[in-house]
Specification:
By secondary structure, this protein is mainly alpha-helical. It has 3 helices and no strands. Helix 2 packs antiparallel against helix 3. The protein is rod-shaped and about 60 Å long. The N and C termini lie far apart (about 40 Å).
Length: about 80
């Protein structure tokens, strides 16, 4: 459902789950590889991919920080 809402523009890349973002990135790459995208659509796909990559990086950074904090808490106790 979230992916569907994302495609409709109701959801930003910042609110998408990591696995959904990766799946959408794979779809974008497949679409570009098959050369199905026209030049106008290509620009939109590249922008969307860029936003998704930023979101993925943010999710990974946040997850790493939470794991480090949890490990530190375990070491301190």
């Amino acid at each position: 459902m979230q992916i569907f809402l994302y495609f409709l523009g109701f959801m930003s890349a910042a609110n998408i789950k990591y696995s959904e973002a990766v799946k959408r990135l794979e779809d974008i790459l497949e679409n570009i590889d098959r050369s199905n995208a026209g030049i106008d659509e290509l620009a939109d796909l590249v922008k969307e991919a860029s936003d998704l990559i930023k979101s993925c990086r943010s999710i990974l950074t946040s997850t790493e920080q939470r794991v480090q904090e949890t490990l530190k808490t375990l070491e301190d106790s």
